[in-house]
Amino acid sequence: MSISVATHPDRPRSGPPLWRRLHLNPPLVAGAVLLTVLLLSAIAAPLLATAGPMDIDLRAVRQAPSAAHWFGTDAVGRDLFSRVLYGGQVSLLVAGLGMMGSLSFGTLMGMLGAFGANWVRPIIDRAIDIQLAFPYVLLAIAITSAVKPSTPVLVLLMVLAAWAGAARVVRAIALQERGKDYVKAADVLGVSRLRIALLHVFPTVLPSLMVLAAMQMAAMIVFEATLSFLGMGVQPPTPSWGGIMLDGKNYITSSWWLTALPGLAIVLTSLSLVLIGDGLQARTDALRSREGDQ
Amino acid sequence: MARQNVLSVENVSVSFPGNSGDLIVVDDVSFTLAAGESLVIAGESGSGKSMICQSLLGILPPQAKVSGTRIDWLGRDLLQAGDKDWRTIRGAEIAMIFQDPTAALNPLITVEHQIGDAIRDHRKCSRAEARARTIEVLGMAGFPEPEHRMKSYPSELSGGLRQRVAIALALSCGPKLIIADEATTNLDVSIQAQIVTLLKKLQQDLGLALIFVTHDLGLAAQVGDNLLVMYAGHAVEQGGVRQVLDDPCHPYTRGLLRSAPTLQSSRANPLRPIPGQAPKPGSIGKGSPFRSRCPVVVDGVCEVMRAPWTNVAPGHDVACHRFARDGREGVQ
Amino acid sequence: MTGVLEARDIVKTFAVTRDGKTSRVAAVNHVSLAVEPGEIVGLVGESGCGKTTISRIMIGIESADSGTVLYRGQPVVSRADWRALRREVQYVFQDPFTALCPTMRIGAALAEPLIIHRIGAPSERADRVAKMLEMVGLHPDVARRLPNQLSGGQRQRVNLARALMLEPRILICDEIVSGLDVSIQAQVLQLLIDLQEKLGLSLIFISHDLRVVRYLASRVLVMYGGEIVEQGASEAVFDDPQHAYTRTLLAAIPDHSRVPAPAHNLGA
Q: What residues form DSSP beta bridges with B97?
């Protein structure tokens, strides 16, 4: 026996408070707050920065964090705090584009893998398998050796590296839904396969896609940092978190702040996104299990 | 019945905390059960029939609140039972058979070990003794070739055989009361008939008390000595099975019987559905739970208070204002 | 045997792997069945007897290994044939919890067949949906809800309403009342009878509950192990069953109008 929590069918639902209707949970709120702070500080970099990100001051080289330079300065005397703020703009933008690109392409491929014509599906299956087996750093080296590294190339690299993960998740959910009676019922009613995929099945994939978006974004932040650190990402003098760490690499033993503080920014951003992902997952699970009760 | 009561449930209620106050899912239910006697609790979904059974085993969800005067089980009050008491009661004194045997059995453990472990949990005995007892209870449950087939995993058995394993598991520690909660609902009719016959036979041979929960009045007629009809968390009518089915006195019982097709029903004598839907828990208030669907409401009475029990015949009682006022003619 | 919708000599096998050996098991073995205009045919049998499979073959959700489905005497073969058949034959699924898209509002789900088949002006569609909801005994407000805000009985009515949106002449119902409470079940049975009487709808009504089939159907077919073992007018089959399996099935039906035999006479 289940305890029904649905409201009476003949009366419109009377409104519980907004936060309850959104089914928020602590990790989700914590992650969202942290991410908002990070995003706002990146956006407001021109207002918050204590110096220009590319202002060289050779009188103050590799100074430790102090009241004048909160995060210290780098090898040519640029203010690290300002560079991390401006670097956030670049890193978050590039990671966001990479995430959206890989998710969109992955979703398209995943839906095709579940609803495509009979000859399309095995091709997509194989493509996903191959992509997942291929180390992305190798891919990055291969591509950046052929084309000059630039921000668009970096985003393209991200999409290539990450679409398969999204495609696999979307395909699995869509295939599972496709076997359900409501899809057969739509088929019997004459609904086309495209319409079934878009209007019936895709909305059921969305909650998982939101979880995936947060996780993917975290992975993209790290990916950008990795590639920039390897010199294949955002090109100097434009600051990005990975690029700043690359600059500080040679002084890692003497000037810890040059690598540790941009690293901290990366860790905090990933943490906020992982929290959001976990929170969204818990929220989806809670909503689904409540559905099952009725 | 001069036999001694083993179980006596007195004014028990079960509620869950809700957004706006507690949701009462079982409201002030009482019944007794004697050794060797069977009681059918019949009702539709949401009637609270499973909840009352779970309260007898202390297996309600943790947020549930049970209150009442007393649940007397062989002189002990189950309302006061702690974890330690439950461990000696569950399985050894009161056992339960669930609707879905697949969920009640561990898929990774063979039938033999599943029952053997349960036996050794409750009493100290050697593996050989446990094995002998396993074969014995499987035999009692009508499980074919127990020595040989008890090496199977649950997934290798049909639904009917799995339910027999669940019955053997329930019997393994020699309980005095077995609760079967919709135990035959998912089975095919011919298997269902076999399982029902088996439960009746075990009850008679072993002198067990049996509580059989069902939504099917046809099954109720086959299984029970006594029948308790529940609606929206309330007991509305109780008595001997034939007494209640042949002379239903609560408008709900009557409506239920007129909605349920039998092998005799035909369109010349149409079914008469009960209009509307069962009320949601928490929306009943103080009045009669059935008033929103009742064709013979007593105006100004059914809305404001619960009906007291009225005696229809020896051992047959009904909780209905209309019956209390006008007798059988009133509820026709 | 001819009828409006007819399945002729249908065979369907499934591959079964046991102990490493794959063999084919016939789920439906040379089954023929037909439904006349305005008739309710009951198809009874226990789980795994092939009753759902044959019904799904008749609407083209599953395909037969051999045999023909005929509609108005014409074999249904091409995609276009099936599309034409589905304008007039509809199917109501067993499980009301999986047969509705969880993210689609009831109103949208009911209007969809009208949109697809370009029936009625867009402005009329909401009206038609409301009328259909009323016909199956639901409040028109239900159109605004999502499936998880409805009870099992309400969902089953929505399923039925959706199948009726195209005004089919034949409805195939797969165990549509078995999950419902008795009082709700009686409401749905009454609705089906009303539809048959008012719209002249034909029904293929699949159920394991012989009591329900007896009440509803004028003709009944008993399936066992993928084959039809007995068929005939309901009274004849129920009152004077010829096949041993039908007799076993009837004897097993729990029936409150019948005083049971003592347990020791039935044998465990």
A: B180
Q: How buried is C239 (Cβ within 10 angstroms: 0-12 exposed, 13-18 middle, 19+ buried)?
A: exposed
CA angle C5, C7, C8 (to 5 degrees): 130
Are the beta carbons of C210 and B189 separated by less than 8 Å? yes
Could you report the per-residue pLDDT of C226-237, keeping only the tens digit for each?
999 999 999 999
The residues, ordered by sequence, that sit 6+ positions from C208 with a Cβ below 8 Å of its Cβ are B188, B189, C44, C45, C46, C47, C175, C178
Picking from C56, C62, C146, C148 by the largest number of A CB atoms within 10 A of its own CB, the best residue to mutate is C148
CATH class for the domain made up of B5-93+175-275? alpha beta
Q: What is the DSSP string of C153-191?
A: HHHHHHHHHHHHTT--SEEEEES-STTS-HHHHHHHHHH
Least Cα separation, residue C76 to chain B (angstroms): 34
Q: Find chain B residues with C-beta within 8 A of A4's C-beta.
A: 46, 280-281
| Domain positions in chain A | 40-289
Is the Cβ pair A181, C101 closer than 8 Å? no
Query: Of B60, B2, B4, which Cα lies nearest the Cα of B176?
Result: B4
Q: Neighbours of B (≥3 Cβ pairs closer than 8 A)?
A: A, C
What amino acid occupies position B311? N
Which residue from A1, A8, A16 is facing B50, i.e. has the nearest CB? A1
Report yes or no for ipTM above 0.85. Answer: no
Domain ranges in chain B are 5-93+175-275, 103-174
Contacts of A8 in chain B (CB under 8 A): 280, 283
Task: Determine the structural domain holding residue C196 and report its residue range.
Answer: 5-94+169-252
Please state the φ and ψ torsions of residue C192, each to the nearest 5 degrees.
-65, -40
CB within 8 A of B172, min separation 6: which ones? B91, B115, B118, B119, B133, B134, B137
Q: How far apart are the first and last CA of chain B?
A: 30
Cβ contact B272:B258 at 8 Å: yes
Give the CATH number of the domain where residue C14 resides.
3.40.50.300
Count of structural domains within chain C:
1
Which amino acid, one-letter code, is at B119? Answer: I
Among C40, C28, C18, CA closest to C191: C40
Second-level CATH architecture of A40-289: Orthogonal Bundle (1.10)
The average pLDDT across A10-30 equals: 66
Q: A140-170 pLDDT, tens per residue? A: 888 878 888 778 888 888 898 889 989 999 9
Cis peptide before A237 (omega within 30 of 0): yes
**Residue C218 domain-assigned (yes or no):** yes
Sheet holding C66-71, edge to edge: C21-35, C5-18, C66-71, C74-75
